[in-house]
Amino acid sequence: MLVEKLIKEHCLSKEEYIELLDNYTADTMEKLRVEADRLKRQYYGDKVFTRGLIEFTNYCKNNCYYCGIRLDNKNASRYRLTEEEILLSCKTGYDLGFRTFVLQGGEDPYFTDDRMVEIIKEIKSLYPDCALTLSIGERSHDTYKRFKEAGADRYLLRHETANEEHYNKLHPENLSLKSRMECLYDLKSLGFQVGAGFMVGSPYQTNETLAEDLVFLKELDPDMVGIGPFLPSHDTIFADCEKGSVEKTLLLLSIIRIILPKALIPATTALGTADPKGREKGLLAGANVVMPNLSPVTVRKKYSLYDDKICTGEEAAECQGCLTRRVASVGFQLVSERGDVYRD
Ligand code: SF4
C-alpha cells in the first residue's frame, strides 16, 4: 500500500518511509524499480548522460571521518593538477564527446576564489557549449555568486545525512549540518543546478536517518542526487566498518527517482566498486548519468576517498568505450549532450 501511495503522490511521511525501508521485499523493490524506470523514460527516454570527472586536487583542509583524503591522513599522497593539466583533461574529454565537465576536489585553500574564477572562465571560453559542474565543498554565498557569474552551471554538494546527530558522528566539530544546508540553499538561490546526496550504509545510519534524507530531498528539490554505498577507507577510523548494501542503494535509487522524477541521478563509481555490475543495476533502478574519470591516469589512484576504487588505470577513451558498452548492455544509450535537467 505504501508503494502505491509513493507512486501516486511522489512522497511519503517520515514514518511511512521508515515503514517502507523496514519491511521492503524483492517484490517491493521490483515494483518501485519498474515505476522508476517508467518515470525516467518519460522525461529522458533511453538516454544516459555522461560527465567528465576531473579530480583536480586531493588536498583538503577538512577531516571528515569517513574520507580517505582528509587532512589528518598522513599516508595520502597529495597532488594538484596545474591549470594546464585541467585544460588538457577538458580537451581530451571534449574530443571524446563529453559536454559536461565536473571539477571535483577536496577543500583546498590553494584554489582560492580568484584561481577558481580564472579556471572557470577559461574552460567556459574554450568550451562554451559545455556545462561546467563544480564539486569543491563549502564556500560563502559571495564566492558561489562569483563562480556563477564566471560561468559555472552546476554544483554538487552531498548533504551526507539530514540528521544532525548523525552528521556530527561523521564529521568533526567545525563542520555542521546547518552550514551545509545553508550552502545548498545558497547555491539554489543563485541559480545553480544543485546536487545533493549521501552514502548508503554509512556508520550510525538508520532507516530513520534515511527517512529524514528522503524528506529533506523532497523539500530541497535538487536537480541532481548522488548516492552510493558506503565503502570504508583503510586510513580512517571507519576502516573496519561494513560496506553499505548494494541492494539497499538500488532500492533508494528507485525511491529517489519516484520522489524527484526529473532528477539527474548518477550510477556512481562507488556502486560499480561494490558490485561489478553495480552501475548497470543502478541504471535499471532509475539512474541516468555516468561519470567517467578524465583525470590523468598518473593521479587517479591518489584520489582515494575509499578503498579499491575501480577505473583508476584506464585512459579516458578506454573508460568511455567501456561505459558505452555497459550502458548499451542494459538497453540504454550513452549520449554526447550537456544533459541539463528536464524543465517543463
Ligand atoms: S569528504 Fe570532502 S571535505 Fe571531507 S575530508 Fe574528504 S574531500 Fe575533504
Automatic annotation (TrEMBL):
A GO BP term here is:
sulfur compound biosynthetic process
Q: What is this protein called?
A: Biotin synthase
Q: How is the cofactor bound?
A: Binds 1 [4Fe-4S] cluster. The cluster is coordinated with 3 cysteines and an exchangeable S-adenosyl-L-methionine.
Residues that coordinate or bind S-adenosyl-L-methionine: 160, 180, 231
UniProt keyword Iron present? yes
Q: Which GO terms describe its molecular function?
A: 4 iron, 4 sulfur cluster binding; metal ion binding; transferase activity
Q: Give the originating organism.
A: Mobilisporobacter senegalensis
The UniProt record lists the Radical SAM core domain at: 46-262
Q: Which residues bind (3R)-3-methyl-D-ornithine?
A: 135
What cofactors does the UniProt entry give for this protein?
A: [4Fe-4S] cluster; [2Fe-2S] cluster
Read off the InterPro entries from this record: Aldolase_TIM, BATS_dom, Elp3/MiaA/NifB-like_rSAM, FeFe-hyd_HydE_rSAM, HydE/PylB-like, rSAM, rSAM_sf
